[in-house]
Specification:
By secondary structure, the chain is mainly alpha-helical. Helix content is about 85%, strand content about 0%. It has two helices and no strands.
Length: about 60
Amino acid sequence: MKELKILADIKDSYNELVHKVSWPTQKELASSAVVVMFASLIIAAVVFAMDFCLENIMHLIYGLF
């Protein structure tokens, strides 16, 4: 009985994947990839700047003692 439920779920998933999902065009996909790359670079730069600033602040604090 449980195997039939799993098979029905797999068939439903396949049906949804093939007939109900709207796939992006190649142009939309490329555009989204560029947005993700730039966002990743911006986030990496912000994390680097925060790390650099905190490292220097810690050196100043621990250098006083």
